[in-house]
Write a structure and sequence with these properties.
By secondary structure, this protein is an all-alpha fold. It is 58% helix and 1% strand. Among the domains are: 100 residues; 137 residues, no CATH class. It has a two-stranded antiparallel sheet with strand order 1-2.
């Protein structure tokens, strides 16, 4: 068993340098996944997950269509388990940037079989994940959408007014098709806007923050004020962060990040409510864990709850910190800045030079978040990115390209060279499309992308020219 594990791990790494072998290796991996001799994740499940993901990362884009068909024609995994238990369904390992090219008639049977599996208890969970992919790929016709809604809301699986046994956050049921009798809005209000005290579990799941970001989730002023009050009570009575956090869990860090996301979404909804603004002002005075206001800066500035000076200092503090929680909070702030499509003028003016400087000096902790934010902004809204930072960005990107050539040991690097090349390639390709930055730097990156034996930069360039997903996360790539 250990030899097989080693062989699969080696093969999944070698395929990154031999893209033409990716479809065949995926075929081998799927055969092993279906082999009854390896029913547990602890057997070769981890290796198969890596193999499937790396096969798609390595393969040339024209090969993706046939490989996607191979994944979806593979039998849906029954009773998938966690950790050492049952192996996971191979669809779960698809990289998010893999898209279907040309439709094939074979997809019709796949859609039918997947929707049928959504009604079966032993395949409902993985079938829901597959159906979400098919839905996003626009492979469901009008009748399929009706069947999808009926299967999702099958009374056998509805608990507390919402579908259960799926991979979806509760807020997703507002967007997916549903029978006329289904009341997703009412069930979500009952679940999340009750008078029950908030708990760590409510925040850590991310469900509340995601729901509040959903435009389709309607919340009146009274419920908004009451939710802010519940959050105030939760924070005011919360224990301090543990002096001895669990080294095997990021829950403490995630709690602060999720709390910040919730405050940001509440502040965004409070724009037309003086009563909610007053409650947020009172909340912002608290100086207790896990409250973090930074992610809400764009909206709190609009409400007059924080000043430009305070927000600018907070941004610089996050950028200069190596603390893992601060890095997560910075990522949430950059997402909110991206979604705001324009902050208060003085904060906007201070933001871009600070982010460009992160790239120029290759600050290890915030570098990947900065590259992702810049790449998404340059790709979607290049006019928002001021031309005055182009020279600084060009210097930093040239240094990243030079430092990550991997012609020798990379122990001296304090950042992930592969991720840096991937996001750097997205950013440079978007700059090239908009004729931004130093032409020599762009040419050097283009040459490196063409000759790169690894797929990271080619995937980055492909992402830069893919139509941007509306409402997407700045860090989704």
């Amino acid at each position: 068993m250990e030899r097989l594990k080693s062989a699969l791990e080696i093969a999944s790494r070698v395929v990154l340098r031999t893209p033409h072998r990716a479809p065949k290796l995926l075929e081998i991996g799927l055969a092993l996944h279906a082999d009854p001799r390896f029913p547990r994740s602890i057997d070769i499940g981890d290796q198969l997950r890596q193999m499937a993901s790396r096969c798609f990362e390595a393969a040339e884009i024209p090969a993706h269509d046939a490989m996607l068909l191979a994944i979806f024609e593979h039998p849906i995994t029954r009773n998938p388990g966690n950790f050492a238990h049952g192996v996971r369904d191979p669809e779960e390992n698809l990289p998010s940037d893999v898209k279907m090219g040309k439709p094939d008639p074979k997809w019709r049977k796949i859609v039918s079989d997947t929707l049928a599996a959504l009604r079966q208890a032993d395949t409902r969970l993985p079938a829901s994940s597959r159906t979400a992919w098919l839905f996003n790929a626009k492979l469901l016709n009008g009748k399929d959408l009706q069947v999808f809604g009926e299967a999702l809301w099958d009374p056998a699986y509805v608990e507390d007014g919402l579908p259960s046994g799926t991979v979806f956050y509760p807020g997703a049921f507002l967007s997916f098709p549903k029978p006329a009798s289904a009341d997703a809005q009412g069930a979500l209000c009952a679940k999340f806007l009750s008078d029950a005290p908030l708990t760590d579990a409510d925040l850590k799941s991310g469900a509340l923050a995601n729901l509040l970001r959903e435009n389709q989730f309607l919340i009146d002023e009274a419920h908004l004020v009451a939710l802010i009050e519940r959050l105030h009570v939760y924070i005011a009575n919360h224990a301090a962060v543990s002096a001895r956090p669990d080294l095997f869990s990021s829950n403490d860090r995630n709690l602060a990040q999720e709390c910040g996301r919730i405050v940001a979404n509440l502040a965004m909804r409070a724009k037309s409510s003086p009563a909610a603004t007053k409650k947020l002002r009172s909340l912002a005075i608290l100086d207790r864990y896990p409250l973090r206001l930074e992610a809400a800066y764009p909206w709190l500035l609009d409400l007059g709850i924080v000043t430009v000076d305070a927000a600018t200092k907070g941004l610089r503090a996050l950028i200069g910190s190596g603390d893992e929680t601060d890095v997560l909070v910075l990522s949430a702030l950059l997402d909110q800045i991206y979604w705001s499509k324009g902050c208060e003028a003085d904060l906007e003016a201070a933001l871009w030079p600070e982010i460009a400087q992160v790239v120029a000096v290759r600050a290890p902790s915030p570098l990947m978040w900065a590259l992702r934010f810049l790449a998404s902004s340059m790709r979607k809204d290049p006019a928002r990115v001021p031309a005055k930072i182009d020279d600084v960005l060009s210097i930093g990107l040239a240094l990243i390209l030079e430092e990550t050539e991997m012609t020798g040991p990379a122990e001296q690097l304090r950042y992930d060279p592969f991720l840096a090349r991937h996001f750097g390639a997205i950013l440079v390709s978007a700059m090239d499309r908009n004729k931004r930055g130093d032409p020599a730097m762009r040419a050097a990156w283009s040459k490196a992308i063409e000759s790169d034996p690894l797929p990271d930069t080619r995937r980055g360039r492909a992402n830069a020219f893919r139509e941007y997903k509306a409402g997407g996360d700045a860090n989704e790539d």
